[in-house]
Request: fold
Amino acid sequence: AGDVLDYRDATRAIVGGGLFMAAGDKLGNVFYSSYQAIPCRGYLPRDGATFEPGAHPAYLLDGTRFGGFTIPTDADGHADETKGEVDPYRCVIPFDAMPQSLNPSAGFVRTANNQPAPIDDDGDSANDTWYLGGPWESVRADTIRQRLEAVVAAGNATVDDMASVQADRRSSLGGWFTPALLGAIDRAKTLATGAGELSADEQRLVALYNAKAARFDEVRTRLGAWSFDAPSGVETFYEAPTEAERSDAVATMIFNAWLPRFVQLVWGDEPNDDLFPFRPDYTRWATILAFLDGRGAGNPDQLASWDPTTEESVFFDRIGTPERERSDELVLSALGEALAALEAAPAEPGYGGFGTADMAQWLWGLRHLVRFDSLIAAVGSDPALAVFTSLFSITTDTLPLADSFPAGDPRKELDHFPRGGDNFSVDAAEHGDDAEDFTYDTGPVMRMAIALGDKTTGKNIVPGGQSGLLGDDYFADQAAKWLGNETIPMRFELDDVLSGATGRETFLPGAPK
Reply:
């Protein structure tokens, strides 16, 4: 493709790509496309706007009722849109009906596993004219949008500007949930220090607060000052945190220890454990946020689960208890559990509590660790084989965190690498909803930023190296930079490749057999 328009036309031949695409050219054109050949699904019966039971294409379909679809192609390899006029099993969604964006007024396009159009906004991904899949997670894409809007407003975007967007580690969940946590502490403290008769639920809330008043007040101070940046806070060869970052790291740790316990208190008593078939962690978070936002007189958000007695969702009440619990009770109960867990002795290095009540020692990066597990470790579970395959993992034996450690330093025992970010961070660092294990192994596979012009320049890094040979200088050299969001030049032009070359290898055809 010579430019974005050529690129757009070439996408017509994508029959099974499965990925969204973005492209730009040196003239300043930008393009986003979700296109690939997708069946129309018109042969699946609908009940009104959505699919009938047993006919939803997100689930296994009954082969005795429905046949398999075919993607028809023309002589050019493009999806043939004419075949669907006579055969619903050979119908493809028209190219022009698929979500695309060419030179939008915003000045940029972005894609990060988000919905390609406002499909999920009404809570149903299957009630539109064309079924495109879903549901999607659009949080990271929204953060990217905000960052790019700021870059566009400043003008003259640089490669470094784009790289900084990729390195964004803001805690979106922290920004959404922390106000409810702080509000619960404030309301409990007001009741505890005030006068007047308390209701039964207020008495329970005050009792929860009084049991850990000083500790809750410290949490309130720390999370009240949190910028929602989620740094590791741990000094390593790739990071030298400031005092502000160490403070944010403590707040990040407390928040991420509290949230899964709060979620468990809300949902753990429900008798049905398959309420959320698609990414239940995402859906639980989103639903609880809706419950929290919908609190108040008159059912302000028209929640179906709103209880006029408590003026909030009935799901905050714990099944099997004589009391009718309120949301603030669950918030503080979960916080008390989180503080106890963080104060406890660690189960093993990098897991569990910190063995101290000093919150300043609760650094997020001492528990939020990225793992560079060997790809060949998946070949089997034989312990004898694991001894061999583990040699190809990149650990702190391969890349020591520091030259030396003082006595008792918790970094000394870590096998993996402290990292910032948390769930939904643009610099992907997703650890899920576990209350004890905050390690992860699914970070960015590359961090590439490119400037297009008369000469193409850019930078990139991958989480590993260019060599699979143990002991080779290039086995883990890029991982060392990846950890600190550093990059190396991306040599695209021939003269750049030659100037940066460290050697040359010549490959010749083998002798005929």
The mean pLDDT is 93. The first helix runs from residue 4 to 10.
